Fold each of these.
Amino acid sequence: MEQVLQQIDQYRKEIDQWVIASAEDLENYRIRFLGTKGVVKALFGEMKNVPVEDKRSFGQVLNDFKQLAEAKYEDHKGLTAAARTEGPAIDLTLPGDALTPGTRHPLSLVRNRIVSIYQRLGFAVAEGPEIEDDWHNFTALNMPENHPARDMQDTFYVQRNPDWVLRTHTSSVQARVLETTPLPVRIICPGRVYRNETVSARANCFFHQVEGLYVDKDVSFADLKQTLYFFVREMFGQHTRVRFRPSYFPFTEPSAEMDISCTVCGGQGCSLCKHTGWVEILGCGMVHPQLLTNLGIDPEVYTGFAFGMGVERIAQLNYRVNDLRLYAQNDLRFLQQFTSGT
Ligand code: 2NL
């Protein structure tokens, strides 16, 4: 026993002094200590000669030794692999890999332009959750259960809780702000919204909206028209004309849809405007008194206007993308075509 322990000490020194400077050195080391006829294997063979009462402590010594032998091997494996490639492993004088800056998503570009125009008019940006409760998405907005308008905005319900829906418009954010913020309120709400639609080139099950809301004393339809007129001229050019057509939304009364003179033909008639000279860009109206009442605001004291537009629709006037689904497919060949600004 004593003899074997001395022998092991010798081997430790040998390992310590063994120089590994090449793949060949490493292989010789492996054969001497770790191979099937190597030192470690042979030492384990000694176990059978050790008296029973010493087996435990001898086993410990053997394991420590085996670990030492293996550690040196592992330490040098990487080094010799690098040495085989001749010269230093990495050339520190090479220039780094170029990082190509990304491009902003086309819908972000359009949304940012819309948002910054309204910010200049004093509108603040408000955001809220995409998973909404029934109250903020429908009921508070004058669309109680069984209201026929709910049909037009069929949405996705959350199975775990039937009170939760994917929001169908960002009006739900506006409802939240009206509940919690002292008046006057002047906000725009950009964000993703969901509708239960059959997906095609012209419809997707989600899209992006910017909605606006202004509630104060003495807000009039004239204020709405001028606000939207300012927006249109900033967004599409100073010569753009607008027209309002009566419409219906459950949360506004009266309601209107706004058209602008066609940005492609200037009103002469072309394929974009289907030869009418006009293209529809948003819906708007005066906030319904029932909605104000629902949110604890006295409609005899306060009035407001609201509007909503689809970002994809506005983007379409600039980019003429022929399949809406491209916006959500993350194909770089599509995305890299939009490189401008902010
Ligand atoms: C559209 C039309 C619209 C609104 C959204 C709104 C929000 C509140 C109160 C009243 Cl909190 N109205 N939003 C009003 C009219 C139209 O959106 O076509 N959007 C894509």
Note: Residues 171, 174-175, 209, 211, 213, 249, 251-252, 283-285, 287, 291, 306-310 surround 2NL (CB under 6 Å).
Amino acid sequence: MPEPRQSRPAEAAGLWWRNSVIYQLYVKSFLDSDGDGIGDIDGVTARLDHIVGLGVDGIWLNPCYPSPNRDGGYDVADYDVVDPRYGGQPAFERLLTACHERGLKLLMDLVPNHCSDQHAWFQQAIAAEPGSVERGRFIFADGRGPDGSRPPNNWRSTFGGSAWTRLTSAAGLPEQWYLHSFDSSQPDFNWDNEEVRQLFDEVLRTWFDRGIDGFRIDVAYAMVKASGLPDLADPDGDNPYLWNQPGVHEIFKRWRAIADSYNRELTLLGEVWLPPSDAADYIRPGELNQVFYFDLLQQPFDARAFQLSIAETLDGLKGAEGVPTWTLNSHDVHRSVSRYGLIEAEPMTSPDANALRTRARGQVDIPLGIQRACAAAMLVLALPGSVYLYQGEELGLPEVQDLPDEARQDPIWERSGHTEYGRDGSRVPLPWTTGGSSFGFSGAGDQDAEPWLPQPAWFAEFAAESQSEDPNSVLNFYRRALQARADFEPDVEFEWLQTGREDVLAFRRGAIVSVTVFDGPSYEPPADWGSPLCTSRLDLPIESPRPAASTTWYRG
Ligand code: GLC
């Protein structure tokens, strides 16, 4: 079993974010230090050894600002502080200091497309008149039809239902409508409004001044809407008027200038669900540093599909200054173990194309899913660019598909009329120990509150504690792979290698060759690819021919 080690100084690899591995922290589900049933910032600080021991370069905290939590904190009521329920500013300061002492970077989540309906500005807007300055910060419009009872256009919310909600005046009369791309509790800001732009300039400065190392930017491609808010020809299809409008790039240039005005290396990472060629536009010189390439995450575990997606990403960089950022898991998709291990899918309908590709339910072969998820993780860890891991991925956690319906909290469940289960299954509090009332999630003992989402009994098998002791566990696989990756030469050329097999992918990066066998019989790589260095199948001798659902690295 490898010894837990200090994270490598990220600066050793040039601009730290270009090759970094970042651990995504869904704070509410990581560790509950005060026994109230929700994870908190002191819980993260308490378990920093677990994160450092993995060998990552930093952490990204999902939103932990004050919020009614109608959409897991992506409904922000105040951008300037950490919610006291997560420990507030003192806990945040403790975590930031501890991270920097351990050589870890810390990224926050910026949510600029919308706020919570409890944000002071929205409360002012609903109290104000149509046409007022207060309403001008959001997207209000009169309804259609003689009595204004039809929404201003036919756009649909990503979470289901109309993208518009009608206000009722203090006197109980129906009045204007406001746009929300997501839940009705998340009004979209009007990014044509200079006050909105200034608000976020200040938010960036506030957190940069406090010492954070960058932001992950929520739905970064959505802020600017097509002018005139035109009706869609097919309201159930994709909405090109809501995403990827050219004006959004002006905002990133403005933010990049702010980031560059600090005398340290900050990163701005966009959440952009676009095809690789469009995603590349977001990391042009002077714009964002990084953008998530979600295309790979949406592919099945198939050699051809992986190769096409990776090739399209790398070929399409178009002189970008930034780097591709890879991820196979997040709080928005089903865990990779369950996606890749799905052997019989249930029928599913959704207006959201991403949901169809990333949140299919059904019967899962978990051992197969784990082998494939580890093989896929190791493949992306060898690619050029940065990699984001999502908490629980290092334990090989499957998706919790069998949450009781009454426990579900994702607004998708209600807004879809209970046709789509949503994203709660990847957000269940982590199992740390094999026993205890919450598998060690709630730190204070038996009197603790129930975890905010119930953990299934089978979580015991995935506890970090027992995996740490097992040399062949998924946890020790991640530790070994990250340890090996830390010695890779950064920013070296990428080259596909011929394998003679359609179900085997291989590529070279400098001295390293990565070989993934997706399917079929075992594969013997040519001797001149080097000596085996690390594999995703810790249970088999690394010298033997490589089995299906495995990745192995060779050093020449
Ligand atoms: C992003 C977040 C997701 C959230 C949505 C609306 O996609 O990752 O969790 O629901 O934005 O803020």
Note: The chain is about 25% helix and 15% strand.
Amino acid sequence: MVRTIWSRLVASTLTAAFCTLAVNSPALAADPVKIGFLVKQAEEPWFQDEWHYAEQAAHEKGFTLVKIGVPNGEKMMAAIDNLAAQKAQGFVICAPDVKLGTAVERTAKRNNLKVISVDDQLIDGSGKAISSIPHMGISGYDIGKQVGQGLLNEIKARGWVLSEVGAMRLAFDQLPTAQQRTQGAADALKAAGLPAANVFDAAQAKTDTESAFNAANIVFTKQTKFKHWVVFGLNDEAVLGTVRAAEGRGLRNDAVIGIGIGGSKAALNEFAKPNPTAFYGSVLISSKRHGYETTMNMYKWITENKLPAAVTFTSGVLMTRQNQAAVRADFGL
Ligand code: FCA
């Protein structure tokens, strides 16, 4: 008898304890948080930095970050399916082609995955930005104008005559942010009096250094009358490829001024060379915000159902050999 009462008591206490546990800790029943971070060019230092700061968010919150390079549409689709199979709840993506936007949205939905885009805003079949996917990118046009202003200041400091300066725009116009960035730079130069006829487009096949090198070579071959050049493009790689092409023709830092966009290792390595090259500067943008904040936003979306801002555009600051340490410190890098 005593035993029966005792065992009943134990059983009811256990049930109560279990209920309390079940009610108060719903997370125990849920899958652990897993977030994908998919980037189009895993070998590019900018994307390595984004991953680094995304890892910081994962470390702080204790979730798993799955980093996948997605250089083409096929790999991207496989990566999204793979994330679903691994029971991830969402992913951040910089897609290899923004026109894959509708496919990304559909595949994510089908797999019940939340999605945030970073750097390159996804577009639909008619070329419109997909507003249902939260996005963090850079203020392309304004940052481009900063590039143009930086080039103008340096032209002035050297006493070059604007009408005698050639301007090379490394173009990758199928990517809207690339178009906006280079347009901003070209507009700033033209507004200051650089003749429109002095601006030459060099179309890149991809957004890497080699494609820029090839594209710039073609323009340098055709346009031989300019002794002074300014060069700009969507990122540091575009400008570095152009600077290398110029060097191949004997055009060095006294003849060429290049300003990139990014400011990660690609730029820092160049600044670390003992002799200054024609890579004069880079508008530093925040890989920390783009990597850490997007991932953190995704985490909060998953765990607190807090929808991220529809669009966030981040700003940049011109960084040169001289001020690199201070500018990076201001960015918390
Ligand atoms: C695009 C470019 C990258 C980087 C990023 C912010 O994705 O391709 O190089 O500039 O925007």
Note: The longest helix spans residues 2-24.
